Amino acid sequence: MTLVLLFDLLLALGVFWLAWQTLFAVSLFRGVVSFMVFGLLISLVWIRLQAPDIALAEAAIGAGVTGALFLSALGRLDDTDSPSFRVLPWTSPLFLSAAALTLLVCLWLGIAVWDLPAPGLAAAVDAELERAGATHPVTAVLLNLRGFDTLLEVAVMLSAVIFSWSLGAAVVPHAPAERLPGLPALASLLHPVFLLVAAYLLWRGSHAPGGAFPAGAVLGAGGILTLLAGGVDWMQRDDRQWLLRLLLVAGLALFLLLALGGLLLTGTFMQLPPAWAAELILLVEVGTALSIALMLMAFYLYGEPAR
């Protein structure tokens, strides 16, 4: 047994163990922490599967931002709100049925993955890279060759923000300054780091793993930290709501403009002109990253900032 295989086995066991700890933790806090560590291990799984783009998004959104949302919600719950779980014995019919169904689904997925064609669409993507505007295949696919899928992802995130705002007015971030006096200083110290990392990921996305989604997730994480420190008060001011809503829809609006522009210039919906593809991809990446960051911050506010 090689060290790499041993690492993969330990990683798989760690993922299953943390999933169990997340679902059946004795307290909600332990469950949230287990979920955050679970997200980090899943990002390692994606790295082992040679998908660093997904690993970046998983670490930033699945572990970081989602963990912050869970911790924020947990801080607003009373101690009496923690539910008690009853673990079924492994001999119960319900447990055996669920285990059998899970095993069948895993077996079916394994057979489906085993029968996938070896080359896939890599050759077709490589043939279009010169006209796609990006030398990194994932960026070329997400923002040009299959940009419609990314457009739908941004639309789904924006719809989720609208639905969360329909729950009521926004709440004050759960981080009183008198209990965390060092948080504003920490946010001021780390905020330039978040900006630099996000800018680097945006620049790197054209030729290597990175792009709008990881950059937006990093910006969103920095924004949530700033919200915890009492900053970004303009998001909850009545006279700045037009700016917030404009920035939230900027990514989707840019995608739609590019889609219609591609239809007029090339005759194909969402196809960018090869001569301007690189510049247009950078433009839409900047707008999408900013919109994603503000969407994640809007989720953290848990409601509509102003009526």
Report on the architecture of this protein.
With 307 residues, the protein is mostly helical. It is 70% helix and 0% strand. The protein has a domain at 137-307. The longest helix has 25 residues, at 277-301. The protein is globular, with a radius of gyration of 22 Å. Residues 186-295 form the Na+/H+ antiporter MnhB subunit-related protein domain. Residues 15-78 form the MrpA C-terminal/MbhD domain. Belongs to the CPA3 antiporters (TC 2.A.63) subunit B family. It is found in: Cell membrane.
Which helices and strands occur, and which strands form pairs?
Blueprint: H1 3-23, H2 28-48, H3 52-75, H4 93-114, H5 122-132, H6 137-145, H7 147-165, H8 183-204, H9 212-228, H10 241-248, H11 250-266, H12 277-301
Helix pairs in contact: 1-2, 2-3, 3-9, 5-6, 6-7, 7-11, 7-12, 8-9, 9-12, 11-12
Briefly characterize the structure.
With 307 residues, the protein is mainly α. The protein has helices spanning 3-23, 28-48, 52-75, 93-114, 122-132, 137-145, 147-165, 183-204, 212-228, 241-248, 250-266, 277-301. Helix content is 70%, strand content 0%.
Which features does this protein show?
mainly alpha
State Rg. 22 Å
Structural class: mainly alpha
Order of helices and strands: HHHHHHHHHHHH
User: What coarse outline follows from CA principal-axis ratios?
Assistant: globular
Fraction of residues in helices? over 70%
Q: Work out the number of β strands.
A: 0
Number of helices: 12
Indicate the mean pLDDT. 79
| Beta-strand content | under 5%
Q: Kindly report how far apart the N and C termini lie.
A: 62 Å
Unreliably modeled segments: none
Largest sheet, if any?
A: none
